[in-house]
Amino acid sequence: MLIDTHCHINNIIKPTFDVLLQKSDFEKVRNILQEAEKNHVTKIINIGTSLIESENSVALAKTFPNIFAAAGIHPTDLKPEWQKELKQISKLVKNKNDNKIVAIGECGIDKYHQPFDLQRQKDGFKAQIELALENNLALVVHSRNAPEETLYSLEEFKKEIKRCVIHCFSENIDFAKTVTSWGFYLGIGGTITYPKNNELRQIIQTIGLEKIVLETDSPFLPPQIIRGKTNYPKYIYEIAQFISNLLGISFDSVAKQTTDNAKKLFEID
Questions:
Q1: Residue 153 contacts residue 125 (beta carbons within 8 Å)
Q2: How does 15-45 read in b/e, with b if 16+ C-beta sit within 10 Å?
Q3: Dihedrals phi, psi of 164, to nearest 5 degrees
Q4: Cα–Cα 20 to 30 A to 126, which of 86, 149, 189, 252?
Q5: Would the pTM of this model clear 0.90, i.e. be above it?
Q6: How many structural domains are present in the chain?
Q7: Which CATH number covers residue 250?
């Protein structure tokens, strides 16, 4: 059994961002889930990145038993009126059980995509951390080219945040040691298979399995074997196999530990 802790099925099945899913879109999901199950991926956390995409994530979770939702606003999708959108997301979260919402996110700091309003990102991140804490939900963090800002934002709440993952981990070993010492997890996906990504492989060899969960970030960041093509949740299997070979341990050990970690992180059975 494997769990994809971070994907965007809504972005796989429709070409346009920030539009609501149509009834016909849901039929496309069945094939994606069937292919995932053939590769032992039995649960999926589908991640929101805006108000509309969070609504889509909830719709998918309510339709398919093995999908769970995260709701939040990605740092690059924080509009000037982001507070209004977050209020609407908060309404979804108040009904978290019916809506199968298990996390807030993805949220955080991104200094890679230009231009950016850093203060808006910091404010939006803090508000979403508080939303997660208020509702006893996990926190899914996006950090790109912003290690200091991300750590600074999280450190204020490090004693309060009980369940958190740094998605698509791409920071250095010191960052990894800091956040894992706080009890947070590292989200590891297809990038670990890229030939030049020696640093991430060394981090995983140092940190070990106890503080990692597996993710595809599909349709983005496919593993090396399909680089340049669309990513899907089924490729969690390839990532787990790669880590098994990297650490010199059995595939079953990787599957069991990362699945146990994901269940604990998102409080799912």
A1: yes
A2: eeeeeebeeebeeebeebbeebeebbbebbb
A3: -155, 145
A4: 189
A5: yes
A6: 1
A7: 3.20.20.140
Q: What span, in angstroms and rounded, lies between the C-alpha atoms of 126 and 33?
A: 34
The contacts of residue 262 (CB under 8 Å, 6+ apart) are 3, 5, 43, 45, 213, 214, 268
102 in helix, strand or coil?
A: strand
Residue written as tokens 């290690």? Answer: 147
> Any idea which residue has 């509309």 for tokens?
52
Residue found by looking up tokens 């969960």 in the block: 213
How far is the CA of 132 from the CAs of 44, 65, 77, 123, 215, in angstroms? 19, 23, 18, 14, 20
> Which residue range(s) make up the domain with 22?
2-266
Task: Provide the 3-class DSSP secondary structure of residue 231.
Answer: coil
CB within 8 Å of 183: residues ≥ 6 apart: 161, 162, 164
- Structure tokens given for 186: 């590292």
